[in-house]
């Protein structure tokens, strides 16, 4: 059975690098754990790092975190839905919010539970996902900052998550100005100005981050070390904290082109035969023990660069090993580095074993 492996030492080294990076700049940060899909084995590994703040977009995952360590500050990183208000107040210390009506419900529920619930007001800054419009922010804040059992812990924004808008120095300066406007008008202090996710790290490394931006939410950089501006690996970080291991269950020399009348395959795709291709050409094909139920093959990068991924069906993936110098045999294991979405698919699959080295 295929399995995904987390390399503990690489995770520890990535965490130490990032923690030092943020501490040197007096920045608070939390680990975004939504990639782990609530897997208890891996959540324990994150907690063991000494993390004090964990972010997730699934209440069930925050519930697991609180069960493992009630002292960790949990943050729900999307606007709450009405039906989940009770659970969010119970398991999330802080939630991201953009609707006055929702914060009023959180206030009422926090009163019932005898708690003070933290709220991060998210601001729309061009990526067109969640966020209060900038011109409406002061009016919004005025209506929610005095609600009972609610504490405004900060303001923040999400960039690059939907439309691909990148965080620039100008964007973060604008976010900092919103903090100044609120503090001046209402005579309050905004603890956090949350400048974004892993995508904003390159700005920080160039010392282009405004000093008012004092909070980050980090997932992809921790697990993949990726510079999202250049798609390279950030110097000092590992890009292979996770790897996929898949077993070869068949090796056969087969035609390069399908034979017979063609229709849609299981994924709804239709294979087109190139009329210029020699139908007698063959390749050495291997079948691996995972498929579309587990992940999308475009998010895999084989450690053996001579391997070509041909395609996947629901439970199997076919690769071309014709050019490999390795003499693969049935039962051998092929390893893959993972892109973020690849790891997300695999970690969400009940059919992929999760292990730690």
TrEMBL record:
Domain Alanine racemase N-terminal positions: 9-225
Domain of life per record: Bacteria
InterPro entries: Ala_racemase, Ala_racemase_N, PLP-binding_barrel
Keyword S-adenosyl-L-methionine in annotation: no
Key words, A-Z: Isomerase, Pyridoxal phosphate
Cofactor(s) listed: pyridoxal 5'-phosphate
Pfam families xref list: Ala_racemase_N
Protein name from the UniProt record: Alanine/ornithine racemase family PLP-dependent enzyme
């Amino acid at each position: 059975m295929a399995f995904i492996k987390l390399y503990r030492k690489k995770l520890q080294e990535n965490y130490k690098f990032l923690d030092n990076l943020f501490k040197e700049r007096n920045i608070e940060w939390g680990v975004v754990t939504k990639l782990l899909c609530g897997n208890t084995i891996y959540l324990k590994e994150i907690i063991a790092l000494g993390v004090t703040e964990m972010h997730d977009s699934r209440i069930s995952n925050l519930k697991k975190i609180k069960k493992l360590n009630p002292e960790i500050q949990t943050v729900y990183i999307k606007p709450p839905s009405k039906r989940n208000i009770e659970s969010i107040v119970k398991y999330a210390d802080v939630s991201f919010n953009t609707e006055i009506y929702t914060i009023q419900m959180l206030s009422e529920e926090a009163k019932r539970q005898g708690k003070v619930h933290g709220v991060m007001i998210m601001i729309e800054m061009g990526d067109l996902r969640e966020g209060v419009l900038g011109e409406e922010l002061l009016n919004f804040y005025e209506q929610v900052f005095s609600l009972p059992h609610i504490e405004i812990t900060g303001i923040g924004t999400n960039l690059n998550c939907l439309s691909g808008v990148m965080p620039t120095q100008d964007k973060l300066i604008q976010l900092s100005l919103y903090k100044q406007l609120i503090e001046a008008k209402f005579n309050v202090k905004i603890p956090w100005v949350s400048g974004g996710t892993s995508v904003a790290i390159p700005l920080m490394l160039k010392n282009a981050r405004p000093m008012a931006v004092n909070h980050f939410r980090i997932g992809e950089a921790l697990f993949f070390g990726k510079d999202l501006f250049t798609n390279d690996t950030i110097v000092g970080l590992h890009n292979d904290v996770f790897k996929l291991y898949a077993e070869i269950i068949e090796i056969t020399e087969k035609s390069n082109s399908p034979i017979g009348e063609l229709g849609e395959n299981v994924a709804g795709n239709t294979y087109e035969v190139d009329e210029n291709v020699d139908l007698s050409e063959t390749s050495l094909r291997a079948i691996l023990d995972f498929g579309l139920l587990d992940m999308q093959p475009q998010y895999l990068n084989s450690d053996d660069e001579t391997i070509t991924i041909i395609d996947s069906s629901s439970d199997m993936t076919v690769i071309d090993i014709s050019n490999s110098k390795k003499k693969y045999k049935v039962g051998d294991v092929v390893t893959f580095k993972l892109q973020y979405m690849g790891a997300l698919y695999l970690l969400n699959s009940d059919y992929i074993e999760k292990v730690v080295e």
